[in-house]
Amino acid sequence: MVLSEKVNQLMEWASKRSVIRMNGDKFRRLVKAPPRNYSVIVMFTALQPHRQCVVCKQADEEYQILANSWRYSSAFTNKIFFAMVDFDEGSDVFQMLNMNSAPTFINFPAKGKPKRGDTYELQVRGFAAEQLARWVADRTDVHECRYNV
User: Fold this and answer.
1) What is the CA radius of gyration of the chain?
2) Residues of the chain whose pLDDT is less than 50?
3) In angstroms, what CA-CA distances link 110 with 2, 140, 142?
4) For the whole model, what pTM was predicted?
5) Distance between CA atoms of 87 and 45, rounded to whole angstroms?
6) In 3D, which of 68, 72, 69, 89 has the Cα closest to residue 21?
7) Secondary structure percentages of the chain, helix, strand, coil, to 5
8) For labelling, which of 22, 33, 40, 70 has a CA lying 20 to 30 Å from the CA of 90?
9) What are the distances in angstroms from CA 124 to CA 94, 119, 120, 121?
10) Can the peptide bond before residue 35 be classed as cis, meaning omega within 30 degrees of 0?
11) What is the Cα 108 distance to its own chain's centre?
């Protein structure tokens, strides 16, 4: 896909849902594969009831608040997108990234590969929308990302 197609596709999905659900194919095409001039904040989770991940559900609620506040803010742009990969829809992505726990938040920056600080320290910072918003602002070129009630 060329860059403009990728951005248009993501913008279309973001206009319908603040958090874009991705499977392995979408993740590889829109997050991993170049070219990319946008950041993607991805929540890796396990929300299916049989996974019994209570913290995944709680983190998802906060992530949805953050993504919604971003989507409806005046700072909304095509430079940052919020996405989710659920283990049961994208276990291949978990394997590709050598991940064995959820929830995990990773910023895939507009340029290059994620660095150490691009993985959110959930155990240290907690997963409140305000904390996530600060981390997003720190890790991306988009500094208008604020948590709005």
Assistant:
1) 14
2) 145-149
3) 15, 8, 11
4) 0.90
5) 6
6) 89
7) 50, 15, 35
8) 70
9) 22, 12, 9, 5
10) yes
11) 8
Of 122, 37, 134, nearest to 80 by C-alpha is: 37
Q: Residue holding tokens 């895939």? A: 108
CA atoms within 13 Å, Cβ hemisphere of 149? 2
Q: For residue 92, which amino acid is it?
A: D
Return the exposure string of 62-79: e unless at least 16 CB atoms fall within 10 Å of the residue's CB, then b.
bbbbbbbbbeeeeebeee
Q: How many CB atoms lie within 10 A of CB 35?
A: 11
- Give the length of the chain: 149
Q: Amino acid identity, residue 8? A: N
The token pair at 3 is 């860059």
* 69, two tokens: 């506040």
Backbone angles phi, psi at 9, to 5 degrees: -65, -45
Q: How far apart are CA 32 and CA 108, in angstroms?
A: 8
Cα 54 to its chain centre, rounded Å, is 19
Tell me the two tokens of residue 148.
């709005």
Q: Can you give the pLDDT at residue 138?
A: 87
- Token pair listed for 123: 């155990």
